[in-house]
Amino acid sequence: MGTTILIVDDHAGFRAQARALLLAAGYDVVGEAQDRASALAAVRALEPEVVLLDVQLPDSTGFEIARSLRDEGAPCTIVLTSSREAYDYGDRISRSGARGFISKGDLSAPALADILEAPA
Description:
5 strands
């Protein structure tokens, strides 16, 4: 079985694309969420190893959700994603507690593996 992943994004099309890409690469996508409440509930219920977390959600930011998960002691690894580039967020990515960042246009199994395999 591959690494378990929860995809959190408010765009159903991106979630479907990311799911297909990750499943084809051997990851186990255990769920999807589209906002803060569903993301936090899914992490608690599904206990994914990795959360692919959009930075901009309708009711929150990925940075706030990452901090909430860190404060709760959730053992998942968080990888932020956005249609924008990492430099647009300055040091907010590193301060969020996320393991890394992948722009949506660069999302691939090798890009995710590079972040997950890098020293924490």
